Give the backbone structure.
Amino acid sequence: MFKRSFHSKDRAGKSVKPSKRSFRDHQKLKLQQTLDSPPVGSTLTSPIVTLVVGHEPRIFAAHENVLSLSPFFAAALKGQFYESSAKRVALPDEDPQIFSCILEYLYKGDYYPRLLFNKRHASFELEDAQDLQNLGGRGSVEPTVCIAGAGGALLKDTVIYCAAERYGLDELKRLALRKQGLQSGITVDVILRSARYAYDNTPDSDSKLRAHYLALIIRSRKTFKRSGTMQLEMEIGGSKLYASRLP
């Protein structure tokens, strides 16, 4: 018999976690190719813009070249030939929590919870997802937010989608829908409230969003029928949420 010396990294029995590649890795590369500045993660040198967000204002700061990835902000900043400390954009109708996600996406290519690819299962999942209801599914992360005037909780990814529509961020819209599709255990009232919000804050021509909500409602139809919600919606005026199902 003989003994073989080996390093700790070669020891048997040590579990190897499946590697996960986040959606933002791809987005980072795109940002690096787009920005006329050092790559994301290094020191950015463009002027700083102050953003005043919400009815009870919160102050954010961001680099002008990062904000300009959005056509909305590129237009808002165009012609502002001031000192960098004087550049200022007011967004009184924006929710600070949602705008924080927008900035996170512009800098990192994703927002919390990140979209991760699990190589072992060959599928995407949400960062920190938990099966809180013990359904044995893929789990979810707290899916809702509360914003002023909404009348209750809304799906966070839907609100981000609508913000992305305003700011001209098509990749963020696709990401938000993809993430929302991974959430589970969403209650009927949240689905309906979020659908109304989405329909009110996007153009009627947005077929992808409407198809997404139609599919969500169909998947949840048993819950809707048990609650009587679908029948009530039809009785009070043939809700546009179901219009695409009618002949």
Notes: The radius of gyration is 22 Å. Residues 1-16, 33-43, 234-238 have pLDDT under 50 and may be disordered. Strands lie at 20-22, 48-53, 58-63, 88-91, 115-118, 123-126, 144-145, 154-155. The chain is about 40% helix and 15% strand.
